[in-house]
C-alpha cells in the first residue's frame, strides 16, 4: 500500500491543479491550496531544522484554528508523527502523554503556555523544542510564525511510506489511563476514500469542522475533504454558539457538518425569528454522532435543514467508522446505529467464548476494516485485548436485528452487575431520556453490600422543570424490569455533567465522584 497518497501529497496535488481554490479558513485568515502547500513546506522544514527525525512524535495542544490544518499536513510531509492533545487535559495528564509517547517537540497555543511551563521539568527532550502559536515567543519558546517565515519553501523531503505512522491519537481515558492509538497514513487515506464513497463528497463541497481538531471526528472528516480537494472551514470559537454556527453555515455556503445531538438541540432551540435570518439551503449532508438522538430531534433537524440528508455513525478512534445509519433509515430504524459502511469490512458480535451470538442477543462488537489502527503505543497487552485475529473491538456491547442493523447496548466496561443480572446503563438512560422533563442523563453502578452494585441515575432537567426521585423511579418501573430501575437518583446542573471534548458523558468521572474511594484501573 506504499503507493497510497498521504494528506501531504493530496495538498501538493491540489496546489498544482487548483492553486487559487480556497483550501481552508477560520475566522482570522484563509489559505488557497497553493498557500497551504507553501506554508506546510516551510513548517515541515522548520520542524526538521529543530533536530527532529523521521518518526519523531510532535504533540499539539491548541484550540480549533487554521494552524491545525497546516500542522497535520506539514508533519505528514516531514515524516513526523502528530500527537493531538485534548485541550481540556490538566497539566499532569499532558505530562503523562508527552512522556508516554516520548514526544520530541510540542506546539501549543498561547493560552497553554503557563500550563506547559508548570510541567517543564517533566518534559525531557521536548524542553528545547516548544513552539508557541499566536503570541510573541517568551523564554523557552519558539515562535510558530517565526519558524515558518525563517524556513525554506523549496525544501525537498524524503518520501513517506503509507504504512508509516501519521498520528498517535490518545483515547479520552474513560476506562483508565489514556492509550495512544497508532494510525498509519494508509489507514488515514483509506478512511477518507471510504467516507467520500459512502457519502458522495466531491471537490465542490465545503465542510464546517466544529468538533475539536484534536479529535478523530474532525481529523477523519478533515482528511476526507483534503483528499477531495474541497474546502474546510474551521469553527474556532472557544464555546459553542448556535446562532454564530448557523450564521457561518449560511455565510460560507457550507454543504456538510458533523455535530453531536446537544449541538442540534441548541440550534433548534433558537427563536424562530433568529433561525429565519439565515439561509440553510446549501447544507446538503449532516452527521449526528456520539450519543443517541430522539425521534423529535431528528424530525426537527430535517425540518430546519430542508435540503439536508441526515446520517448517523458509530465508530471509534481505533477502528474508524464501523456502522452508518443512512438518510432513509433515520426514522424507520430509530435508535440503531445502522449497518456497515461501504467497503468497511464486516461486523461480528461475540460472546465471552468468542462464538457469534444469534440475532437479538447481546455480544461484544468486533469489526474488520481496511483502516483499523495498528495497535496501542507501547502497550502490547491492551493491543492484544483489542484484537481477535483481524477483528478489532473497543469493548462495546451490541445486538443485531433480523435486518442486519446494529443496536448499541453499552460499553462493556460500563456494564452494571446487580444480583447476578447484567444491566446496560444505556438501556436505562434511554428510558429516563424519554421523560419529557429530562434533558440529559447518565446511569452508573454504585457498590452495594448485598447486590454487588445498584443502579444510580444522574439527571439534568430541562430549564424551568422540577422533579423528584419518586417521579423518575415510577417512570422507570412502568418501562423496565424491577432490577434495572434506579435505586437512587441525583439531579445536577448541565454544567456539572462531566463530558469529553465531543460531548460524551464521562461515566468514570461520575463514578469517582460518587464513590471517591474506588480506584480506577490503569
UniProtKB/TrEMBL annotation:
Which superkingdom? Bacteria
| TM spans (from-to) | none
Ranges for the AMP-dependent synthetase/ligase domain? Answer: 13-377
Q: Identify the keywords attached in UniProt to this record, alphabetized.
A: Ligase
One molecular function GO term is: medium-chain fatty acid-CoA ligase activity
Q: Which Pfam families match?
A: AMP-binding, AMP-binding_C
**Where does the AMP-binding enzyme C-terminal domain lie?**
427-504
Q: Would the keyword Ligase be found if you checked this record's keyword annotation?
A: yes
Q: Which GO terms describe its biological process?
A: fatty acid metabolic process
Q: Which Gene3D superfamilies match?
A: 3.30.300.30, N-terminal domain of ligase-like
Q: What family does the database annotate?
A: Belongs to the ATP-dependent AMP-binding enzyme family.
Q: What is this protein called?
A: Acyl-CoA synthetase (AMP-forming)/AMP-acid ligase II
Q: Which organism is it from?
A: Aromatoleum tolulyticum
Amino acid at each position: 500500500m506504499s503507493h497510497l497518497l498521504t494528506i501531504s501529497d493530496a495538498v501538493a496535488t491540489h496546489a498544482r491543479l487548483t492553486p487559487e481554490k480556497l483550501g481552508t479558513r477560520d475566522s482570522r485568515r484563509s489559505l488557497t491550496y497553493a498557500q497551504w502547500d507553501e506554508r506546510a513546506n516551510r513548517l515541515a522544514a522548520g520542524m526538521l531544522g529543530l533536530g527532529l527525525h523521521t518518526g519523531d512524535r510532535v504533540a499539539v495542544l491548541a484550540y480549533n484554528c487554521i494552524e491545525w490544518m497546516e500542522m497535520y499536513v506539514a508533519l505528514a510531509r516531514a515524516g513526523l508523527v502528530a500527537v493531538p492533545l485534548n485541550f481540556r487535559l490538566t497539566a499532569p495528564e499532558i505530562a503523562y502523554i508527552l512522556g508516554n509517547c516520548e514526544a520530541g517537540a510540542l506546539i501549543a497555543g498561547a493560552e497553554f503556555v503557563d500550563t506547559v511551563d508548570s510541567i517543564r521539568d517533566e518534559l525531557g527532550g521536548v524542553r528545547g523544542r516548544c513552539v508557541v502559536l499566536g503570541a510573541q515567543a517568551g523564554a523557552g519558546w519558539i515562535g510558530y510564525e517565526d519558524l515558518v517565515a525563517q524556513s525554506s519553501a523549496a525544501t525537498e523531503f524524503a518520501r513517506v511510506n503509507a504504512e508509516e505512522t501519521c498520528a498517535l491519537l490518545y483515547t479520552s481515558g474513560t476506562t483508565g489511563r489514556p492509550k495512544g492509538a497508532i494510525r498509519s497514513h494508509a489507514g488515514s487515506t483509506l478512511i477518507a476514500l471510504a467516507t467520500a464513497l459512502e457519502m458522495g463528497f466531491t471537490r465542490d463541497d465545503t465542510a464546517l469542522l466544529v468538533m475539536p481538531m484534536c479529535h478523530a471526528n474532525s481529523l477523519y472528516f478533515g482528511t476526507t475533504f483534503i483528499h477531495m480537494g474541497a474546502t474546510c472551514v474551521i469553527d474556532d470559537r472557544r464555546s459553542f454558539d448556535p446562532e454564530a454556527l448557523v450564521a457561518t453555515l449560511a455565510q460560507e455556503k457550507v454543504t456538510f457538518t458533523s455535530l453531536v445531538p446537544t449541538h442540534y438541540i441548541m440550534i433548534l432551540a433558537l427563536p424562530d425569528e433568529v433561525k429565519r435570518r439565515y439561509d440553510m439551503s446549501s447544507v446538503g449532508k449532516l452527521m449526528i454522532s456520539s450519543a443517541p438522538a430522539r425521534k423529535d430531534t431528528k424530525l426537527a433537524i430535517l425540518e430546519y435543514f430542508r435540503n439536508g440528508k441526515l446520517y448517523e455513525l458509530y465508530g471509534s478512534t481505533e477502528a474508524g467508522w464501523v456502522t452508518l445509519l443512512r438518510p432513509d433509515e433515520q426514522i424507520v430504524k430509530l435508535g440503531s446505529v445502522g449497518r456497515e459502511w461501504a467497503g468497511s469490512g464486516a461486523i461480528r458480535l461475540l460472546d465471552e467464548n468468542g462464538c457469534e451470538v444469534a440475532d437479538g442477543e447481546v455480544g461484544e462488537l468486533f469489526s474488520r476494516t481496511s483502516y483499523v489502527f495498528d495497535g496501542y503505543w507501547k502497550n502490547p497487552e491492551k493491543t492484544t485485548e483489542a484484537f481477535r485475529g483481524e477483528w478489532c473491538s473497543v469493548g462495546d456491547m451490541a445486538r443485531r436485528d433480523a435486518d442486519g442493523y446494529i443496536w448499541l447496548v453499552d460499553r462493556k466496561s460500563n456494564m452494571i452487575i446487580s444480583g447476578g443480572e447484567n444491566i446496560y446503563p444505556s438501556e436505562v438512560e434511554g428510558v429516563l431520556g424519554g421523560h419529557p422533563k429530562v434533558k440529559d442523563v447518565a446511569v452508573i453502578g454504585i457498590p452495594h453490600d448485598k447486590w454487588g452494585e445498584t443502579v444510580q441515575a444522574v439527571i439534568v432537567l430541562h430549564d424551568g422543570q422540577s422533579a423528584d426521585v419518586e417521579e423518575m423511579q415510577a417512570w422507570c418501573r412502568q418501562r423496565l424490569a424491577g432490577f434495572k430501575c434506579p435505586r437512587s437518583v441525583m439531579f445536577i446542573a448541565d454544567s456539572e455533567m462531566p463530558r469529553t471534548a465531543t460531548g460524551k458523558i464521562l461515566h468514570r468521572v461520575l463514578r469517582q465522584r460518587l464513590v471517591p474511594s474506588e480506584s480506577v484501573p490503569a
